[in-house]
Design a protein that fits this description.
The complex is a heterodimer. By secondary structure, chain A is an alpha/beta fold. Chain A contains 16 helices and 32 strands. In chain A, the strands form 8 sheets. In chain A, strands 2-5-1-8-10-11-21 form a 7-stranded parallel β-sheet, sandwiched between helices. In chain A, strands 14-13-19-15-16-17-18 form a 7-stranded mixed β-sheet, with helices on both faces. The N and C termini of chain B lie far apart (about 40 Å). The chains are: A alpha/beta, B alpha+beta. Strand 9 of chain A pairs antiparallel with strand 5 of chain B.
Chain lengths: ~650, ~90
């Protein structure tokens, strides 16, 4: 967050313009953001209550200290609770740190401060990425609901939601999830449903199971689901080989090799201990390396699909002077800057292959790793993180997920001081801020933006806020090309949903696709829930409409997963801007013809609603057998209300 | 029945409460009692009180309890129940 808000144009090199949503929305003042996570590190400056007024009178929450009498809330961090009975029921007795909302893991402090942390100047990780850390809603109040101790269990998550709704949060940030279960067998979906019924906007992370298709989690239409992409900052560290080849990796290593001195390079498989397998040694697993072979050399480890950071510790323990961490093909292609304990550089798969080839074909391979640097204005940005989970939605393919993408790679935000930055027990270093990557990190960026929108438009429904965020998103990067994957291919809405979030545009979307609780009940009718079941969570008798169809669910994206011949879908837009006439512009998916009726919509007042129909036809029988992508834009010349169109012919 | 039936923890989701949003702590206690009553109709009230480890009383209607698989399956059939599901581990992302 020392760079991401600049990248999202809320500021320009630290200068906040009067046109920024930050200024217009008073930095999220009066909004309360709750976070279901690993708790909070209350002593972090991100949660300082300097210049904060009295706690809003509507707040009903508490500061639950548990066994930690030193835990303090304040006028910024206005509430904290912890829930661990669900964990205890499965994992058995736990350590005393679980009996407190204190974040001993780091994740919860990072996500909460990204959503609503106060301004903290001079934030950096070992000198890298220096700047002012701040949340998306830096003047919002925040509350921590610790639902993750030794794991995050459904029973605890549900308890967290129940209390957060009761306490009076306006926004809930949920950077966790699991398998794609049916909505009412999924604690996050159930909790979100109740929250949204109470006007609370729930933002969830899409998951880190990419880049495979159909991996996205948090699939309910009442959740805002967020994928992860890069920002325009990198921490390059070069691996220079003895054969003059050079590869750009990334790192946040504090230690550096002596200048211009090349060291012997050894592949980890060649450094295996006598009792270890070459496969395990290649991954630099604990106890698999022979210190006699490693000492004084740069070790090349394969990343694999397990944790990256401990490999550096294993390399250091074995006596390596440095480490090259090479991606394998399974781990995608992105490279992550981590605070390694020795000079190290994380390189991509193709470069890793070249390094291994060099090691295997050279009698005395030599290498040098340069000290990392903070590099800004990198291009292209954003591109999708390979780990970011992708659609299609496996529960309701008619709803596109994720909804949106936001910065989630190498995000610097507040951290716990109970753990080292690598989360390993042996890392005795302590940091006030840490760089972390994941959809967990992109989710609270959107939560912070939602906090601003809540302050600016307190009467907008959660669906209207989601619509504003989605329809104002962009699908081009900072070189005005379509957003790509980390493999340099064009990304699709299955990666980024409606696109990359643009907060300044979201505050004035022009039109919104709104939804009420009844629309969600109708959606459940269309999914096959019977009237008796729906009555259980509808508070009052509810009759399913006979004409309910998932195709006509008023979602801001349009997805037709089995187009058989043709289909007409209906949408209704509400004017939240100024009077004007909007005209439809369609970008047709390959092999599909689309017509919009009417082709223009005239709005005379705010709050006015207009309905239109979109007819999609298979033009060429063979052309759309796989998913194809297009878009619909309504524009009055000032606003551009964009919806992705995703179609697959039956 | 086996002597040592396998017990697992489950969430029993009952939808919304009949009480409105403005309720007192006394009402919350009543909700918890109603959860014991409901589960007690399957297990007996004493056992129900022993096995429930969460009673969701504010906005979400339901409870979490340690149950045998057969008990969970039986409870899931009740018309007042929306769903019964295992208390599973979710991941930080």
């Amino acid at each position: 967050t020392t760079r991401s808000w600049d990248f999202l144009r809320l500021e320009d090199d630290g200068v906040i313009h009067s046109s920024s949503i930050w200024k217009k929305a008073r930095f999220g003042e009066d909004t309360i953001i709750g976070n279901l996570d690993t708790g909070v590190w209350p002593r972090s400056k991100s949660f300082s209550d300097e210049e904060m007024g009295p706690i809003p009178s509507k707040w009903k929450g508490i500061c639950q200290k548990g066994g930690d009498a030193s835990f303090r809330c304040n006028r910024k961090l206005i509430g904290a609770r912890y829930f661990n009975k669900g964990s205890a029921a499965i994992a058995g007795p736990f350590n005393s740190s679980y009996d407190s909302p204190l974040d001993t893991e780091g994740h919860g402090s990072h996500t909460l401060s990204t959503a609503g942390g106060n301004f903290v100047a001079g934030a950096n990780v070992f000198g890298f990425g220096n700047g002012t850390a701040k949340g998306g809603s830096p003047k919002a109040r925040v509350a921590a609901y610790k639902v993750c101790g030794s794991g995050c269990f459904d029973a605890d998550i549900l308890a967290g939601f129940d209390f957060a709704i009761h306490d009076g949060v306006d926004v809930l940030s949920v950077s966790l999830g699991g398998d794609a279960d049916p909505f009412f067998k999924d604690s996050v979906a159930i909790g979100s449903f109740h929250a949204v019924k109470n006007g609370i906007v729930v933002i969830c992370s899409a998951g880190n199971s990419g880049p495979d298709d159909a991996t996205v989690s948090n699939l309910a239409p009442w959740q805002i689901t967020v994928g992860a992409s890069t920002m325009d900052r990198q921490f390059p560290s070069y691996v220079n080989l003895g054969n003059k080849m050079s590869f750009q990796g990334e790192s946040l290593s504090t230690k550096a090799l002596p200048p211009n001195k090349f060291f012997p390079l050894i592949g980890a498989a060649h450094a295996k201990a006598a009792n270890a397998s070459a496969e395990d040694a290649l991954l630099c697993k604990a106890g698999t390396l022979d210190p006699r072979k490693v000492k004084g050399k740069i070790l090349v480890c394969l990343r694999g699909i397990t944790a990256r950071v401990d490999k550096g510790q294993q390399a250091a323990l074995a006596g390596a002077v440095g480490m090259v961490l090479a991606n394998n093909d399974l781990s995608g292609n992105e490279i992550i800057a981590d605070p390694h304990v020795l000079p190290a550089s994380h390189i991509n798969y193709a470069d890793g292959v070249a390094v291994f080839n060099y090691v295997n074909s050279t009698r005395s391979p030599m290498a040098y790793i340069t000290r990392p640097k903070t590099q800004l204005n990198t291009k292209p940005a954003p591109f999708m993180a390979a780990f970011s989970s992708k659609g299609p939605n496996t529960i309701t393919p008619e709803i596109l997920k994720p909804d949106i993408t936001a910065p989630g790679v190498s995000v610097i935000a507040a951290y716990t001081e109970a753990q080292g930055p690598t989360d390993e027990d042996f890392d005795n270093r302590r940091v006030l801020f840490n760089s972390v990557s994941g959809t967990s990190m992109s989710c609270p960026h959107v939560s912070g933006i939602v906090g601003l929108l809540k302050t600016l438009h307190p009467n907008w429904s959660p669906a209207a806020i989601r619509s504003a965020i989605m329809t104002s998103a962009r699908t081009r990067d900072n070189v005005v090309e379509p957003i790509t994957t980390s493999f340099y291919k064009k990304a699709t809405p299955f990666s980024y949903g409606a696109g990359h979030v643009q907060p300044n545009r979201a505050m004035d979307p022009g039109l919104v696709y709104d939804l009420t609780v009844n629309d969600y009940l109708n959606f459940l009718c269309a999914l096959g829930y019977n009237q008796t079941q729906i009555a259980l969570f509808s508070e009052r008798p509810y009759t399913c409409s006979k004409h309910t169809s998932l195709a006509n669910f008023n979602y801001p994206s349009i997805t037709v997963p089995k187009l058989n011949g043709s289909i007409t879908v209906t949408r209704t837009v509400k004017n939240v801007g100024s009077p004007g006439t909007y005209r439809a512009h369609v970008k047709k998916p390959a092999g599909i013809s689309i017509s919009v009726k009417p082709g223009s919509l005239k709005f005379e007042k705010i709050g006015e609603e207009k309905t239109f129909k979109l007819t999609l036809k298979v033009k060429e029988a063979n052309a759309a057998r796989d998913y194809v992508f297009g878009g619909l834009t309504w524009s009055d010349g000032k606003h551009y209300v964009r919806s992705p169109i995703v179609v697959k012919a039956a | 029945r086996p002597t040592f039936a396998i017990q697992k923890s489950y969430v029993v989701y009952l939808g919304v409460h009949s009480h409105g949003p403005e309720v007192s702590s006394i009402d919350f206690d009543q909700v918890t009692e109603s959860h014991y009553d409901f589960l007690g109709s399957f297990l007996g009230r004493k056992k129900a009180k022993d096995v429930v480890f969460y009673s969701y009383t504010r906005h979400i209607n339901g409870f979490a309890a340690t149950l045998e698989e057969e008990e969970a399956a039986e409870i899931a059939k009740h018309p007042k129940v929306v769903s019964v599901f295992l208390n599973k581990r979710r991941k930080l992302h």
